[in-house]
Amino acid sequence: MRGKLLAAVVAIALIGSSCSGDDDDDSGGNSASGAGTEVATTDVVADFTAAGSINAAYVLDAEPGSELVLADIENTEVATATVDDLGSAVFYDIEPGAGYRVVHEGTDETASSESFAVLSADDEPDPTLYEQEMTEGLNYVRMRDGVELAMTVRLPAGATIDAGPFPTVIEHSGYQVAAPKDLFQDVVARLADPALPPDPLVPSTSTAVGSLITPVLGYATVSVQMRGTGCSGGAFDLFDLPTTYDGYDMVETVAAQDWVKGNKVGMVGISFSGFSQLFAAGTNPPSLAGVAPMSVTDDFYRTAGFPGGIYNDGFAQSWLEERAEDAKPAPEGGQAWAKELVAQGDEHCIANQKLHGQARDVFSILADNPDRVPELNDKREPARWAAQIEAPIFIAGAFHDEQIFGVGPGLVEGLADNPDAYVTLMNGTHVDPLGPAVITRWAEFLSLYVADAVPELPQSVLDLSGALYAQIASAPAAPVQQSRFAGRTDLEAVREEYRRDPRVRVIMDIGGGPAGPGALEAVWEMAFDAWPPTDVAATPYYLGPEGTLVSSEPGTEGSDTYTSDASARARTNLPEGDPWHGVPGYVWEPVSDGNGLGFVTEPLTEDVVIAGPASADVYVSSTAADTDLQVTISELRADGTENYVQFGVLRASYRALADDATDLEARHPYDAREDLVAGEPTLVRVPIFPVAYAFRAGSRIRLTIQAPGGERPRWTFATTEDGSTENTIGSGGATPSALMLPVVPGQAAGGPLPPCGALRGTACRAYTPAANGG
After folding, report:
1. What is the spatial distance between Cα 186 and Cα 184, in angstroms, rounded to a whole number?
2. Most buried among 190, 288, 608, 675, by the most CB within 10 A?
3. pLDDT of residue 25 exceeding 50
4. What is the pLDDT of residue 30?
C-alpha cells in the first residue's frame, strides 16, 4: 500500500520538476565614478553597516536616498551608489583588497564605515566558518561574506537526526527549495482532498529531486535557497561569483555536521538545481563526493539565451521574468514562503530581505549587450566551471530539451581529464533524464560515490514507476529496474565495475518501442568514449538542383531563392499542450510556398546513424545587410511522413568562426558582427544542435532553410525577418553549399522504424515539398 501511495506522490510532485529558463565589468550595477577623486576623511562612525563580498561591497541600514561613496585604502573614490528604499546598496565589480570603507558626505557631517576587505575568489575563509551547527528543519547559515542562506535539512522518511549519520546530498536552487514543510506530506494531503489551497511553506515541485526523491532513497537532503531569493540574504545576480562560491561554503558547512556520513556530501537536482551543481563543483570543495546534474547545457548565451546570436524571446524571456519576480523583497514581492515567514515574524527572513532590492537588472544588461561579451558571460558559462570539476560527476540530458537544450559538447569536452565522469544522452524533453532508462544508473552513482554503499533501490521506488511516468508523460513506461549490483557485498569491486561503464551512453528511440508512442522506454543504445564522438565521419551532403541533396559535389553552379518571413509560419510547434506528454499534439507546419527551401536525398540504401553536432554550410546572397537563417534536418519516410531530427539558427552577421571550429561544429564567438555584401555569395556556417538519430534504409534525409520559428515548443525568436528580405542559397561550382553530418561508421539502427510521432521530443507530419522541389 505504501508503495502505491509513494508512486502517486512522486508522480504528482515530478510534474513540475523543471525550469518554469573576477574583476568583471557587468552592466547594471553601481559603476565606478571619477578615478582619482580624493574622499573626505572623518572620525565619525557611520550608523550603517558596510562589508565586502567577492568582487563587491554592500551596505545595510543606511538612510534611503542618501548618496554613498566607496573609497579604497588610498582614500580614492572607487564607486558611488544611491541607497534604496530598504536602506541598502551594492557596489559591483570592485577590485579585491583590504582597507575599503563607505563614506556618506552629508550636509552636516561626513561619516564613514569601519574599513573592510573586498574578497577575492581565491581567498580561503576562516575554517571556523564551517563549524556552524545545523539541525532538522530550517536553518540560517552564514557564508564567507556574512550573507545568510536559508537551508532546510530533510531526513529520510521516518528518521530522526539522532539516527544518523546519513548519506547526504545538497539541492541548491533559486526556485522555492528551502520552504520548510514536507512535500511528501503535502501531496498525500492533496490526494485525499484536491480542493486544499496551496500551502506557501511547501517547496516547489521543481525541486522534488532533493525534497522528495533522495529522502525516499535514504539520503538526508539539505535544500539550499540561492542568495537573493526566498528567505536567503544577499542580492540576486544569476551565477555571479558570490553565488558560485556559496557552493563551496555550503558543501563544507554541511559536510562538517556530525549527522553526515563520512563528512562528505553530494549534490543533486534537475535544471536550475542541476546548473548550480556545476558552478559549485567547479570551486572544488574538499568534502564534495560527487555531483549528479540533470538537464543542463554548456553555455547560456549560445543555447537558451541567444541561440545563433538571436534573442530567445520565448522561454528565456519568460524564465528571466520569473526569476526577477522571485528576487523581489518580501512581503511586497518574492516567493510565497518568504512572504509567509515575514508575516509570521521570522527575524532572519525579514533581515535577509534587505539586499533583495539590489538584484541585477538582467534585462538592462541584455539590452546593452546583445553580443556574447566575455567579461559578462564567461563566469556564468557552465562549461568553464565544469572543466575545473575534480569530483565524480554523472550528467544526463535530452537532445530535444524544450527549455535549455541538451548537454552541449563544450560541457563534456571539459570533463576529459575527470576519470569519473559519466554522461547519458537521449532523445526527448527536459524531464526525460528522470526516465527509467536513466534513474537506476543515477541512483547507482549516488550510492557508490556519496553513500559508499553497494547500490540497491528500495522496493517502494520500484513500485512507483507506472504511476510516476503516467503522470509525467501521459503515456506508458518501462518499469524502473533494480540495480544490477543489488545483493553484492564487495563495494570496491562493484565500484570498479561501474567505472567500466561507457563514458558516454546514448539512448536511442525513446518513445518508439512496444510500450506505445511516446512511452518512456529505451529501444537501443550506443556507447562512445567522448562527446562529440571522435570516431564519427564528417559526411557532406551537397545542395543540388531542383531541391536535391547529393553525396558528390555538383559541378554546375546553381541557386534557389526564398522570402525570409517569420510571420509566414507559426512561432512554435506546440501552441497548446505539454511537451512532456507522450503525444503532445505538435502542430509542425510545412514550409510555406516561397518562404523556404527544401533539399532531399535519394532513398538511402542502408541505415545512416548520426551522433554529435552538425553544420549547414550554405553560401548566402541576401538583399539585406543581415539575415537570420534557420536550418532543419528531418527524415522522410517511405510512407510519406516526415520526422523532425534537429535544427539550428544563426544571424548571418555572426558568421565569423571561433578558432576551435571543426568540420562538424560551426562554433562562433558571437562577439562581433559583419554585414553581408549585397549580391555577393558568402559562406555562412549554421550550427546544428547535437543529436543522435538513425535514418533508416528506404528513408530520405531532408534539409530545410527558412526564417526562424516553428520548430520548437517553447523557444521563439526576436528576429527581424518580416518578409522584406530575399535570400539566395548557392549550390555547386563556386558555391558548394552542404549539410555536414556526423555519421557513425558501420552503425545500423538497433530497432525497427518508430511510428510517425512516436519518438519523444520530436514532431512528425505529412511531407510537403518546398517550392524548389525538395
Report:
1. 5
2. 288
3. no
4. 58
